[in-house]
Amino acid sequence: MSSVPGLNGSTPAYPGLQILLIADPTLAVLLQPLLAQSLLEPVQIVPIHPPEAALAQLHQADRSELILLDLALSENLDCLSTLHQHAPHVPILVLLEESQTGIAEQTLSAGATDYLFKSELTPSLLRRSLRYILHGTEFQQVEANLRQSEARFFAAAEASLDALFILQSYRHPEQNQIIDFVCTDVNSRGEKLLGKPRQAILGRFLSELLPVDSSKQLIQKYTLVVETGQVLEEELPVNITPLPITWLHHQIVPLGDGIAITARDISERKQKEAELHRQAFYDPLTELPNRTYFMNRLTKVLERAGRRQDFHYAVFFLDLDRFKVVNDSLGHLLGDEFLKAIARRLSSCLREEDMVARLGGDEFAILLEELSNPDIVHRIAERLQRVLSAPFTLKQHELFTTASIGIALGTSYYEQPEAILRDADIAMYQAKTQGKARHIIFDQAMHTRAVKRWQLESDLRWAIERREFCLVYQPIVSIQTERLIGFEALVRWHHPQRGWISPAEFISVAEETGLIIPLGHWVLWEGCRQLRQWQSQFNLSPTAEPPLTVSVNLSSKQFCQPDLIHYIQQVLQQTGMEGTCLKLELTESILMENLSTATSLLVQLKELGIQLALDDFGTGYSSLSYLHRFPLDVLKIDRSFINGIEAETENLEIVRTILSLARSLNLQVVAEGVETQAQLDHLQALQCGYAQGYLISRPLTPEKTEQFLQEYLQSRGKDPESSEQGQEEGSDQANDSPYPSRAA
């Protein structure tokens, strides 16, 4: 093996080229200098003899090769054919004798790349022939590599999950601007995506393959990619008829004066994302935005308000009035339909840029942006009330509702969305406590009251735990005979720092927080325990007619407890008190808001011997049509009707009507809040049965109640039954007051 270096320090064009010189040794020696003059780069020349040895050398070679074959060594073309079959990629230059002119053309058919006659060999001729052969081989190799690369590329494209399109730009013939794109290649996924066969896609303009509006937008995008050379990747919605896709992942890569596009249908993924978004940010019942979505939007509004001083916004907090009545009386299914109808009405009377959300239950929130004037919120609130107050007709039921609306106006004070929603909630609470069906705008004083209320709630929880409550007892007497028939047990709270707290202040908080349940349980148990103790102490028979009773108020939340009957039975059993000595006082609203269960519960209470009183009659629903359905024993006239009765105002006629109604239903009547003798005289003239109030006695502590009882029994000769009989027989001579507290 010999090496022929490049001459004149030239850069080799074929570094590492290996030439197999198949010739007899004598000719090989002569040809090597000739080759050295013909090639200007270093090559390796490998003399081979005999010709059969070339096959072994070809198998061992790992570089590009060229074969120089002296055909004079072979009597026929078999050697040439064999070499070409074993190495079809290696070019073969055949050297012929003058006598072999006849087979020159046959050598080309047998696999030779070219042939030369030895007699004509010169360095320049050999150089031209070798360069022609090598350049041609290089071009063929590049073409082969390109074909292989394209084959691999399209094989990968066919296996890909993405649609692939190759587009060539089409320019205006005069202005040289891109005006369209022509599809030059497409894979099977691309065919499926467009819903067209390959032959209907190739050679077609983009404007022909897609609708005009869609193609115009895409041509603009694709032109930008070609001109900037920047890859574009995006997810875009698709609304192209008749394509079945709605979302597409789209990547455009510049490719010379054209582009390569990969596209994937992501409609299913987007649909799942949309479903997850809906579940996370929308209320499933009304399909309104939920609390999370509302708070996100409110956060952005606060950020915008921080950047613009002229930006006005407001938050409305709506709570439906008496929705629970509908839900409990007509069922939750109709209640759900009612909520959906309300949601539609609220949405219909707001602007598109406003947001209404359902926070939960029967609570809604509204966000108003870009208000021209903050004062406009009054008109908006009034419009909402008008819309809601119109009757709803659902499944042959005509339903009505109103809303208590709290409004918080956006100011620079608010930095957190929770703060402004809280203040709107506080204002809503004020609207509800002031009579419902109204709207109130938040002011800072409300926040102060809300903080105090929160502190009261916290203290109330501790008070129940620490047993800071006590009971006082207000006597109830017969107006005609002045006989004591019982006491009403009233709860009082002595706060360790604030002292005595009015029931008007803490009872409503206990109701709203549910603390009324444990508190009410204690009141019932303690009232029964105390009366049973006095019965034993003063030898008062529980079977007397009528027996001395204790009246206990039952709250709405207690009445709705599923274990109410069982708990009362347990209290009676543990305290040893007879059911006939217990009166339970309920308000009209408790019965009316629980129509479906009220009658059954009242019957079960009556079966325990308990007497039932309707408290504060006349101040609530005054539903006379329902009154006869309930197994009641007593009506209690609210103090608001007793006040002023002596002046013979309209209250006198109301009391007269209530007494007439009670007599027709065979009910006893107790007048509450009797404070003057004139009031008592009028009630006596109207033949009202019983009274309680400051005229008879203030509520008394257990110790003073015990003293009251003792003095009362002494005034009755320590025998209530016999004393009662004597009093009734000799009432004209009984001028001294039998009421210990008044006598004192």
TrEMBL record:
InterPro entries: Biofilm_reg_signaling, CheY-like_superfamily, EAL_dom, EAL_sf, GGDEF_dom, Nucleotide_cyclase, PAS, PAS-like_dom_sf. Residues 17-133 form the Response regulatory domain. PROSITE patterns: EAL, GGDEF, RESPONSE_REGULATORY. Residues 707-744 are annotated as: Disordered. Residues 453-713 form the EAL domain. Residues 311-444 form the GGDEF domain. Pfam families: EAL (PF00563), GGDEF (PF00990), PAS_4 (PF08448). GO terms for biological process: phosphorelay signal transduction system. Gene3D superfamilies: 3.30.70.270, 3.40.50.2300, EAL domain, PAS domain. The modification 4-aspartylphosphate is found at D70. Keywords: Phosphoprotein. It comes from the Bacteria. This is Response regulator receiver modulated diguanylate cyclase/phosphodiesterase with PAS/PAC sensor(S). It comes from Cyanothece sp. (strain PCC 7425 / ATCC 29141).
